[in-house]
Design a protein that fits this description.
By secondary structure, the protein is mainly alpha-helical. It has 3 domains: 45 residues, Ubiquitin-like (UB roll); 92 residues, Type II secretion system (T2SS), domain F (Receptor-associated Protein, Up-down Bundle); 251 residues, Type II secretion system (T2SS), domain F (Receptor-associated Protein, Up-down Bundle), CATH 1.20.81.30. The chain contains 16 helices and 3 strands. The protein has a 3-stranded antiparallel sheet, covered by helices on one side.
Length: 406
Amino acid sequence: MPVFKYKARGQRGDAIEGTLEAGTTDIVASRLVEGGLTPVDIREVIEKVGLDSNLNELFKPKVETADLIQFSRQMYSMLRAGIPIFSAIKGLTATSTNKTMAQTLGKVAQSLESGRPLSDSLGQHPDVFSVFYISLVRVGETSGKLDEIFQQLAFYLDREKTTRTKIKAALRYPIFVFTAIIIALAVISIWVIPAFSDLFASFNAELPLATRVLMAISDFMVTYWPALLFLLVSAIGGVKWYVATEAGRYRWDKRKLSLPLVGNVIYRAALARFSHLFSLSLNANVSLIVSLTVVARAVNNSYMEERILGMREGIEHGNTLSQTAANSGIFDPLVLQMLAIGEESGTITDLLKEIAGYYDREVDYATERLSAAIEPILTVVIAGLVLVMAMGVFLPMWDLASAALH
């Protein structure tokens, strides 16, 4: 939408300048008059496309989960206070600290002004708002519970952010240690050990086997590093391309659920996400079929998505939710029992919340076990690497002392 620069006079005759986004100059003039200003000059701003604008577009800040949590909470508070949707969006556009989020909300406000509903306006920005987020907003619009939907979205997003933070925290220390050890090995192999080679040659002595092995590896990497780098980049690019395909993504999503150490955490987190979203949808009076369809897309795992859509097909053929859940093969027996009880008692939504809480606790427990399991493994690996470095560095020093004495 074009941006117009205006000059106007206030009620006391003072000069006022500013910019407005609008379709035409007439709309700008109408807004100024509505605001108690007298338009003097209105001109469209022609944006210059150059290096600076391209760099700004390239390095614009990303909309993080924390920004969406804040947006959801603020929308809940404003709608709860009776503020119209358009006014709420305009207010958040002016106060948002994330430039990308502010620009997105500005475009959402323009869409609202043209008569589109909030869900459609948010749907024009899929890189910011997920399919599930937009679907629940649409449910809130039709059910008249938009404020409650934003409150529930804020809670769900906050829980997701907490889970991801815990997993990253558990993996951060081992990754840092492995990186440091690899760098140390590279420095010793490339600069330290070759120095011993020249020194041993002057004494007509032979390097120890462990040192010769390290030197052979070092010479190989130094000689063929362009080819190794090409193979590494090609392998990474090939894996990314394969994972981007439908078959590759499905196999990777299925495989990562059974990865050593972290697979259980990812699996429990996916089930917790499913339970939260499913409960959220049913609580918003969304039908069972539609809820499963929307939640399947929001789980962000193609293997789990296929299983959940299989549950939907089973329900369409007349099976109960507990039966289709058992056939999916992705739920624990305790959860299946709770689903069966919920169907019989008519409290499926409440029990889904209990299931979500159960999986949340399982994720916390699995994350703690992940940290506990990594520590001994890391200790053994570090001990092995230190032994290799010690044999590669200290054995030549001891042999060098013997050679010097003789």
